[in-house]
């Protein structure tokens, strides 16, 4: 088992996934900026993505849509490296060369997601705050922050809020491991369906489409929890300290969901979904395309291409 997990193949998948995701996120980063503003700034009207971006540029400058790019890219690179490594390493150990099934992909995806969340949540908490720093919010209750960089953000959060604050939103993140798990389950199932048992490399168009479909389904299903996750990571909420961490987290998630529905109705849970779908579907589709091409070229150079496609 250790050979399957700690192998060159798992490393190739991890590096390919990390490079693909970083490139794709860089291309579509302004769309993520629009999505995050709609999620955390409750007083900002839900508008089309171009309208939101036009407002941000007008009020905050031309480079504002790329604010916080570096910490996001660092977090994304680490996160996807861990996820792709765990997913393909565990899959190789479990299957031992056999054909996979959707249920297997889902279980492995959940396990890989849990490992990823526990290791990388502090990076996502810091990057959420840096990305929103200096923004002009419609909600007057949001407190301004002043971090000079990633390390300073870590230091200030630990000093003022305690080490535990770096794992704000961990419970929602653990629930949201279903997002990449569903995404990978659908992606791998569609990939097997297109191949119909014949080991071949999918075309760029095929990879792009199935990557987009898989992400669209996963995002729509889990979006309300993603909104709560963004709010918790931003840290602009009051959490009870008179009960256990688990009960407090569950109560906070429930309160945020209920308050959102009371203020804006059920559709309030999906505020920013258009921007999120536009960003995440295009990003995921491009990421999977780059990942497949990078992995394919690397395996071909290593002389593993034929065996690689038979096992996937």
From TrEMBL:
Keywords: Membrane, Repeat, Transmembrane, Transmembrane helix, Transport. The keyword Transmembrane helix applies. It comes from the Eukaryota. It is a multi-pass membrane protein. Solcar repeats lie at residues 8-93, 100-193, 202-297. The keyword Membrane applies. The chain crosses the membrane at residues 12-31, 68-86, 106-126, 171-190. Coiled coil: none annotated. Its main location: membrane. Gene3D superfamilies: Mitochondrial carrier domain. It is found in: Membrane. GO terms for molecular function: ADP transmembrane transporter activity; AMP transmembrane transporter activity; ATP transmembrane transporter activity; coenzyme A transmembrane transporter activity; FAD transmembrane transporter activity; FMN transmembrane transporter activity; NAD transmembrane transporter activity. One of its GO terms (cellular component) is peroxisomal membrane. Belongs to the mitochondrial carrier (TC 2.A.29) family. This is Peroxisomal membrane protein PMP34. It comes from Perca flavescens. The lineage of its organism: Eukaryota, Metazoa, Chordata, Craniata, Vertebrata.
């Amino acid at each position: 088992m250790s050979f399957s997990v700690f192998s060159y193949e798992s490393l190739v998948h991890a590096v390919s996934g990390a490079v693909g995701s970083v490139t794709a996120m860089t291309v579509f980063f302004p769309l993520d900026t629009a999505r995050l503003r709609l999620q955390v700034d409750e007083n900002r009207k839900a508008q089309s993505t171009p309208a939101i971006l036009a407002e941000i540029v007008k009020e905050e400058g031309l480079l504002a849509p790329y604010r916080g790019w570096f910490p996001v890219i660092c977090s994304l690179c680490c996160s996807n490296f861990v996820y792709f490594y765990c997913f393909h390493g565990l899959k190789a150990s479990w299957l031992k060369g056999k054909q996979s099934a959707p249920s297997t992909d889902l279980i492995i995806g959940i396990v890989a997601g849990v490992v990823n969340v526990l290791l990388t949540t502090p990076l996502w908490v810091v990057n959420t705050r840096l990305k929103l720093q200096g923004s002009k919010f419609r909600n007057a209750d949001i407190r301004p922050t002043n971090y000079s960089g990633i390390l300073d953000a870590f230091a200030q959060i630990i000093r003022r809020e305690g080490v535990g604050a770096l794992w704000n939103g961990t419970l929602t993140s653990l629930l949201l491991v279903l997002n990449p798990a569903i995404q990978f389950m659908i992606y791998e199932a569609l990939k097997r369906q297109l191949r119909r048992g014949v080991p071949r490399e999918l075309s760029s168009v095929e990879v792009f489409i199935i990557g987009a479909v898989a992400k669209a389904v996963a995002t729509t299903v889990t979006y309300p929890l993603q909104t709560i996750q963004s709010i918790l990571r931003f840290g602009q909420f009051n959490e009870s300290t008179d009960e256990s961490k688990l009960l407090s987290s569950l109560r906070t998630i429930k309160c945020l969901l209920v308050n959102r529905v009371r203020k804006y109705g059920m559709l309030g849970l999906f505020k920013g979904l258009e921007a999120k779908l536009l960003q995440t579907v295009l990003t995921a589709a491009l990421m999977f395309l780059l990942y497949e091409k990078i992995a394919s070229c690397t395996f071909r150079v290593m002389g593993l291409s034929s065996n690689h496609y038979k096992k996937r």
